[in-house]
Amino acid sequence: MSRARRSSWQEGGEAGGENGLQETETPQPGAEPIEPEGGGRRKPVLRWILFLLFVLWAVLTAYHEPILTRIGGFLVVSHELEPSDLIVCLSGGGVERGLAAADLHREGLAPRVFISPEVPPDGYEALERAGIEIPRSVDILRRILVESGVPDQAVLEAEQPARSTMGEAGMAVDVAEENGYRSLIVVTSPTHSRRAWMTFRHATEAEGIAIRMAPSPYSGFRAEDWWKTRRYVREVIVEYQKLLYYTLEYFL
Fold first, then answer.
1. The dihedral formed by the CA atoms of 134, 156, 119 and 136, expressed in degrees to the nearest 10
2. Inter-axis angle of helices 193-204 and 165-179, to 10 degrees?
3. Do 213 and 77 form a contact (C-beta atoms < 8 A)?
4. What is the mean pLDDT of residues 42-53?
5. Which domains are assigned to the chain?
6. What are 68-92's pLDDT values in tens digits?
7. Cβ–Cβ < 8 Å for 98, 89
8. Both ends of the chain: CA-CA distance in Å?
9. By C-alpha distance, which of 224, 189, 218, 215 is closest to 71?
10. To 5 degrees, how large is the angle CA 250–CA 224–CA 59?
11. Mean pLDDT calculated for residue range 159-179
12. In percent, how much of the chain has pLDDT > 90?
């Protein structure tokens, strides 16, 4: 072989080493791409969650009326009324509660009505300093009672305002103990009646005073359609929040 051909062969071989077939490298252990483990398990779980959400939506759509009716109805406690010693007209819903208390007095279910003032609203003291007189909520309630036929002397008014249903129950129990009353009729709004009943029952359990609840029939709340009125939607939500708080704070 001539020196020229040998040189040409060597150059071709070197070129083939660079531009020709590349040698296949043996993969090293652990060099494979790492895939997240358990990825396949998430899909069935997600499917079950979506399925359960769909079932819940279907149930609520089909049975929302009876469910919501039970939710609203649970808040309402009403007892068969008997002649008692005192009607307790709770503050906070003067017109509807005052009218109901006056009706019960007119029916002869109790000879006296107990009322209590509410905490004055912000700015009330500024009005007093300026000489501007506005009626308090308890004044309006007393007027409703008196002009509906309850004698003024039969309206017992607490001296201090009630800051909560528990505080109002305590004041009513004090009046009952001072006068020897053994039975009370509590008048309030329908959505407030369960919490009021639990509160008065808690406040009177040691004294053995009978408590009967009388939700006002003058309220527009109805268990069968409360969710159609924004005001009562708000009342139900707030009342369940307060009921939970009272249960944890006082009743457990």
1. -10
2. 50
3. yes
4. 82
5. 86-251 (3.40.50.620)
6. 999 999 999 999 999 999 999 999 8
7. yes
8. 109
9. 224
10. 90
11. 94
12. 64
